[in-house]
Amino acid sequence: METLDRKNSPSFKTVEKIDLIHATEKRLNNNIPVYSINAGSQDLIKIEFLFDAGMFQQQMPLQATTVNSMLEEGTSKMNAAQIADAVDFYGAFLEVGVSQDNASVVLYTLNKHLKATISVIEDVIKNATFPDDELTTHLTNKKQKFHVNNQKVATLARKRFTELIFGSKHPYGINVQESDFEQINRAHLDSFYKSYYRSNHCKIILAGKIDEDVFQLLNDYFGGNDWSTDKKSISNSVEIVTEKQREQLIYKEDALQSAIRIGKVMFNKTHPDFQALQILNTIYGGYFGSRLMSNIREDKGYTYGIGSGIASLKNAGYFFISTEVGVDVCKNAINEIYFEMDRLRTEVIPEDELQLVKNYLLGTFLRSVDGPFAMAERFKGILEYNLSYDYFDKYVATIKSVSASQLRDLATTYLDKESMIELVAGKK
Asked: Where do the domains of the chain lie, and which CATH numbers do they carry?
């Protein structure tokens, strides 16, 4: 038996190529695209229904989120308790979610119980009724949570920040106001639901152990023309209007902490600089060992956590820096944020630091495609942008090849203090 050499660490191997199982596409009889990732050893399947029913499509605040949240609260055949019992009986799980650009209904189930559980999700998707009693309870709870969260500086900063960078009339910048809870009613929900939770606004992603019976069941339950609509998705015709006054303050007299949000409108992942900028962002504030964390958390002790990111949306994107600090060190923290930003613009990143981040990103990517459900999430991330699997090959190649001088050039182009909106909620 070969003995382990505990005095020397194992040799380091770089990731040369990442082989992903590609999603295959088929169409239901009504032309709904079905993307399948057939992988995994467990008799388990995930079915995700994606709809063009995000906040970008809504005609009023709360419409998209309330419709999505209440899909499980009652249909023309079952009430909320019956829906929950029908899913739980088979050990399945039903999950709903909504984002700026789309909404989802997800079923996790054992393959042997798919026929029983798919009828439940069909009912939820096609026959939701939004009962008045359930709607009243839902809005009351949401309004109470709204009041609680609006006392927090982090919530105030997060909501105001998107409004500042996109404009108060842009779908990505509109925020819920207290009066919105009184404005919305069942008719608004029904109108949105019947416009967007329909076959011609739907895509389906399958992941897990998949056989032909799965596709046939989907076709039987969802392949008909009984749930189509003439309603078109809203086009991106709203102009982004970023606030001209760079420094913003939401003053809160009793604040012990100040929430800081700094950033700007950026592009999404279809832009040629997006992937390299992700690497730059990771060095700056995108992981626990970043420069912002090392300086502002570890060295200065101003915060428990600070980070930066690049959010990719279907019709735009934005760069942001986020943290909460004591009110007495707010100005110092902001100065250090810009100090680290300026370093990226003027100094070349040391090779050992760059290599560490490259290894971290390659490892993170490997973990993010471990298993069929994870691969489905990655595929969803390129599907909505009409990107191919080449995107991932290019990402790995960019990580491995990007140089310190290229990253400095990117910082000079995009990380300009004067182009950033600076928002503080609390005291400054």
From this structure: 24-222 (3.30.830.10), 247-426 (3.30.830.10)
